[in-house]
Amino acid sequence: MDETLRYEHFGANDQKAAANETLLEYQTNLQNLALQAQDAGATPILLTPLSRRDFTTPTNLTLNLIDQRTYTIYAAANTSTSYLDLNQASVEYLLAIGNATAQTYDLACTDETHLNDWGSVVFGRMVADLVLGHAPVVHVHDGSDGQSEHVQKSENNKAKVPAWGDLKSWFVPNATLSADIWHGVWAQGGDCPLES
């Protein structure tokens, strides 16, 4: 593969009040990064931010990075850049596994933003699968008729996924972990104990 791909991602720290950054500035900064990559001959791919694991109830996830997701998609559209919807994929996965199991991916047992080592493996696999063309949609089995259903109503995958060549050789496959993620099954291994 002769093409240089550059993945660009802003997220939780850019949302904080201390960053003193408006959503328009957030979008402009992403657009500038994408244009710089294009000027350098690379192909930029924007990633929407990973969801925080901030639940208000065991099944109600706070969508506190939804604006950053939207403005990342705007930045991609304004620069004719592809994007991968990590936010949608991570939201759907977290809703599927629920609060208690989602917290096992926390860096510290009260840190719902940063990932521990196993959380990095799980969401790193999610990014790899998105890069390889998986739609950001999690299907869960409802237990009644053998059919999978979406965790939530999701948009069509509007990300332009161009032919980047054969990227599979750049990633170590993990079929079990990929299946767990995209079927909404808790991929166990985090350090924080399950809440009782």
From TrEMBL:
**Name listed for the protein in its UniProt record:** SGNH hydrolase-type esterase domain-containing protein
Q: Does the keyword Metal-binding apply?
A: no
Originating organism: Coniella lustricola
List the molecular function annotations (GO) for this entry. hydrolase activity
Indicate yes or no for the key word Ribonucleoprotein. no
Q: Which SUPFAM superfamilies match?
A: SGNH hydrolase (SSF52266)
- Report keywords, A-Z: Hydrolase
